[in-house]
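Late entry, evening session. Most of the bench is empty. Finally got around to the prediction I had been postponing all week. Sequence below, unchanged from the version circulated by S.P.
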Amino acid sequence: SFNSLNHDMTLPEFKFIWYMEYSHRMWGRVVGLAYILPAAYFWRRGWLSRPLKGCVLALCGLVCFQGLLGWYMVKSGLEEKPDSYDIPRVSQYRLAAHLGSALVLYSASLWTGLSLLLPQHKLPETKQLLRLRQYAHGTTALIFLTALSGAFVAGLDAGLVYNSFPKMGERWIPDDLLAFSPMLRNIFENPTTVQFDHRILGIASVTAVTALYLFSRKIPLPRRTRMAVTSLLAVACVQ
């Protein structure tokens, strides 16, 4: 890898990257212990209900899986590829899987914690509320997909291909959008297509969040729910 990439790197520059990677690994292990040790203590004290035990086991298993997935991802960047002329990098597929599992772990942890800390609102199941809930779930899926597409952008260095917005260079739709064959490969391996898709998904996500906010304004909602929707819109705009 050193002969193919960063062959002029100095020792202090290497140490900076090494310590970043080392800190990430150590922080991941601290997170794992923060899950497993209290879970074992609470379990032994009998403070966990039967459903909560299942949640705790699933979360602890996901923490361990996340660590293994991280190792599997890094391993792909160290494998020799004699038939490839590309610079050494981790697999964008494994990077997306690592990020995706981290998002699932974070979301599941937050959902479990808030379910225990905050009482559930008993709202009448109106048609408008049902539509709002379905739309919120769809928006969540779209945001998740957008984040995963960002992992492909990072894995392929696709952000370096075009640095203008809203056009890509001088065109709205680049010429090399479907340069790879078969066509499906472009979505995951063509840097131009990956950046284009990420832009479209990002715009779609902000639009969906804005529409969700506007729709929520027409429904009588508890203060906590309204704050959550407003915060979602604010974070989407900042992002």
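Two things to note before I forget:
The chain has a mean pLDDT of 90.
The chain is about 70% helix and 0% strand.
Will write this up properly tomorrow.
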